[in-house]
Amino acid sequence: MTRVYVSAVMPISLEQAWRVLRNFNGLPNYHPFFAKSYIEDGKPADQVGCVRHFHDHDGNAIREELLSLSDREHLCCYRILEAPALPVRGYVSEMRLKPITTSGNCFGEWWAEFEVDDAERDDVIQRVTDTFRLAFEGAAEVGR
Fold first, then answer.
1. Measured distance CA(141)–CA(40) in Å, rounded
2. Bridge-partner residues for 61, per DSSP?
3. At the top level of its lineage, which domain of life is listed (predicted)?
4. pLDDT tens for residues 48-84?
5. Torsion of CA 72, 141, 108, 81, to 10 degrees
6. What local confidence, expressed as pLDDT, does residue 114 receive?
7. What per-residue confidence (pLDDT) applies to 117?
8. Distance (Å) of CA 64 to CA 88, 92, 117, 144
9. At a CB cut-off of 8 Å and minimum separation 6, what does 102 contact?
């Protein structure tokens, strides 16, 4: 099992960061990798079990299912259902936010666990790491 973990201090409040990151359909609003997104079957983007279908700028599609979303714990968990351009199996990811009380900033952590073939492991780890890092950077920019 491969695990990727990224953390960041965002120069915005927990509330500002959560407003951006809790939107399961909002990736194209703050992430440079992603061009468009929609929730399948017209379900709400905060409904556990909803499936987001999104595309990167190269046209590659990814489908992910929302497993949990907690406004109390500022936590989101999801799994990949289909990602033909990302050769992973059993991918589950969780993002959590916490306040930094001394500064008013927000601490974010994002992790994923998945299986990947050895030949593609380094590339996939870098891509997932970059995805999480850029999500935190974009959320900080948009959340101001």
1. 28
2. 55
3. Bacteria
4. 999 999 999 999 999 999 999 999 999 999 999 999 9
5. 80
6. 98
7. 97
8. 13, 9, 21, 27
9. none
